[in-house]
Every structure is written in C-alpha cells, then in structure tokens.
Amino acid sequence: MLFLEYDGTRYGGWQEQKNARTVMGELREAAEGFFGRRVEIGGAGRTDAGVHATGQVAHLRAEPRGRPAVEQILRALNEALPADIAVKEVREAPARFHARHDAIARRYLYRITRRKTAFDKKFVWWVKEPLDVIAMTQAAALLEGRHDFARFRAQDPAKPDEPSVVVVAEAKVEQDGHFLLLHFEASHFLWRMVRRLTGALVKVGKGELTVADFKALVDGGRPDLDVAAWTAPAAGLFLEAVRYRSAP
Amino acid sequence: MLFLEYDGTRYGGWQEQKNARTVMGELREAAEGFFGRRVEIGGAGRTDAGVHATGQVAHLRAEPRGRPAVEQILRALNEALPADIAVKEVREAPARFHARHDAIARRYLYRITRRKTAFDKKFVWWVKEPLDVIAMTQAAALLEGRHDFARFRAQDPAKPDEPSVVVVAEAKVEQDGHFLLLHFEASHFLWRMVRRLTGALVKVGKGELTVADFKALVDGGRPDLDVAAWTAPAAGLFLEAVRYRSAP
Questions:
Q1: What is the rounded distance in angstroms from the CA atom of residue B140 to the CA atom of residue A109?
Q2: Pairing state between β A179-186 and A103-113
Q3: Contacts with A, B 102-141, CB within 8 Å
Q4: Residue B228 has pLDDT above 70, yes or no
Q5: Are B84 and A118 inside 8 Å of each other by CB?
Q6: What pLDDT, on a 0 to 100 scale, did the predictor assign at position B247?
Q7: Second label for B36, Cα 20 to 30 Å away, from A38, A183, A210, B55?
Q8: CA–CA separation, B157 vs B16, rounded Å?
Q9: What backbone torsions phi and psi does residue A203 show, to the nearest 5 degrees?
Q10: Following CA atoms A117, A123, A127, A130 in sequence, which dihedral angle do they give, to the nearest 10 degrees?
Q11: What is the ipTM of this complex?
C-alpha cells in the first residue's frame, strides 16, 4: 500500500497509456527496477492529465526475492522516481487489498487564487474577475446528498453505462487569504465532474449563473446550458485523500 | 511602495546586474513600460541568485503623466511581469520613503524537508539524514542577541568595512509535519549569513557539530572550521517580511 503525491503537470494522467508518460508508468518502472520483476499496480483515483495528487493511494504486489523492509522500498522508489513524484509512505497491506475497489470515498481539492501568485502557476486557477463567495457557498451546499450529475460528467468511453447518480458527502468553499479552496468528497466522481462543478461554481461567483440555475443543473436539467465549456483547468485540481473502511 | 513575491529560481538575484536577468530588472522594465519614462526603484533586501521572496518591499518613484490609481499600477505591473514575479500590493508612500534605508528589520525563512516532496523541489532543501531537532533548537536560541557573525558571512566586495556584529531579534526552529521551518529576524543580515547559519544548524542536527562548537562560532571563534562549505542551498531561502517604523 503506497501513499503518493505528485505534480501532474508533465504527465498524461495517472493511468498507464501507450504514447504518454503517466504517473503509474513511472511508478511501475521504478518498482520493477527495484524488485527485478513484473509487479501489479493499481491506484485509487484515475487523475487526468495535468491533475495533481497529495493523497493518491496505490497497491503494489510483487514477489520479491527476500523480504525488503517498507523503509527500504520507500527509499528505493523515491530514488528511482523523478522529482515530481514522491512516495510518502509504504505500508504492508492485507493480501487482497485493492486500492480502487476497497476505497469507500475520494476527496478532491480545487484551488483558486484571486490574485497573481509567483509560486504556483501550475497548481492554481487564477480567476481575475470578482467572485461572490457567499453565492458560491450557497451553490456548493446544494451539491451535498444524492443527485443526478449527468450534466457535469464527460462521457467515459470505457464506461458507457455508468450511472450518473452520485452521493456527495461534502462540498464546501473555504477562504484562505487570497485563495478559495473548494473541497469535494464523494464515494466516487464521474469523469471531469470536479472540474465541471468548479467551473459552474465560478460562473455562480461571477454572477453569470444564478443559484437556482445551478440547482437545476444539479438535478440533471437545463440541457440548454453548455457546462462542458466551463470546465475548470486541470492545474488547480488535487486528489487529496482516499478513504478505506478501516481507516488507514 | 510595492509588496512583492517572487520565485527566484530563474534570476541572478534581486539587484540589477549587467549580463543577468534580475527581479529588479524585470520590475524596472514593467514599470518603465507602464509609466513611459525612467523610474527610480529600490528594494529592502538584496536577495541572492535563486533566493525567493514572499514579502519583498520596494519603492518606486515615477513622474507619471496624470495620476494613475494604485489598483491600475498593480494590474499593469502584474500583466507585464513574468509569471514568477507578482506584485501583491501597491500603496502610496511618504515622499522620501526609501525601502532599504527606512527598514528597521528583515525576516527570513529557511525551509527544510525531511522527506521527498513532489511539489517544491525549487523551494526547499531536502536533508536526507536524521536531524536532532532539539539540538538545533538549542543552537538557534544561542543566536538571539548581539554577536559577532564574522564566521558566518561571505566578504562583500562592495562593503569591505562592514561591521560583523549583528543583533538578532529572533531565531527559531519550527516543525510543521515533515518540514522544518527556520525563522530569522534581525535589523540586517550579512552576505550569505542566513544560509551559513542554516548550514551550521543542520550540522548540529546531524550530530556533526556540537552545540558548544556552534556557540564558539557565534562568538566569532573556531577559525579552523570551514563554515562556508556548509552554506545551505539558495532554493530553501525566502525573504518573508520587512519591517518599518510605522508598521505598513
């Protein structure tokens, strides 16, 4: 069981692909170099191209010669991985642990800045227009509970029949100086859902979408509105944490 | 009066130089573009190549046509400046305000990480060896007060006669998760002083320098020890704040 953080800027996302560098691909290369044989890897969240993680969780199954200590695996992986991927912790997991199937909730953070920042252009969305944070907070509160998020997903070709009803455990807007931090927690999220929710919340903040229209979208309505066009940039998005039944 | 933050990685420091891009040079270009004429600029702290700032202060004197509002100057400078330099605030200052002469104290932060981090390789020093934080805290406390820091300075060719006695108002070590944050405040600092203090404190943390030997260095002694060789990397250092008599 691996806890990872990464700067997703240079990668085509978490999941391995042909013709693109991916975080999981880098992890596989580091792990197979260390164990000297093929390993099985899986991650809890399929972060998209350019999306970051502070709390990705992965399983890694290998049949090592000998039995290396977790500290030894941690050190070897970090030495082999590029500077923008870090393994924070390695723990022994139950034999059949599966990072994605066993996860009961994912937590995402979207970072918005309201002024230019010198340090984190790659890690934030700079919204130059004034934002009505009270309206955004009201709209975010409407997300909690069970809703049909069909209007907020991109159709995933790998999952044509995926249901679009999701139970959102938490959605809130937090002010931290010139940053707005949007927190989302749900059992799972649909493809692009967090970025489209963020984009719609920013529309509310700018006064270009009423809270009532936002509510209609959250109930699957208003097919006339082009939610996809509002999708927030990947740079501001972080997979923050993954929860398991017995808290890891 | 400008409050600035910058990622110093790409620059040859704050101060204008021939043959190097500098933060002040970029600021001059942006300001002269906006005002359409030569401006007078000065900064409170001469950060070195690769050193960052979250709280640099500068004065900027121009004879503008008309009288642009501070918000207009702020917006124009940020639009013209590169992404790694941000003006946080512009304020009208008293007519003879001088960012360096009027400053009564500078505050620096040095960031150390004890594990690999994916996000801020450019903004932190990763010390892989275990560190005795208690010994470092004891050593840091010895810095407060008036001492002869001759052993911790690099000789500045521009100031051959600069005295090496400095009154340090605060020096402390703070733990924040896997980060160690070293805070230093003094009326002024000698060239390279913060990086050499940090290097020596890390030596103490590693058990390679006793607190007693550190104390001897702080009193100007132990010429046999090569403090310069321990200089901490520029990447971890930030000019955090500059204080003025009437708190800005």
A1: 36
A2: antiparallel
A3: 115-119, 121, 123
A4: yes
A5: yes
A6: 55
A7: B55
A8: 16
A9: -60, -40
A10: -70
A11: 0.86
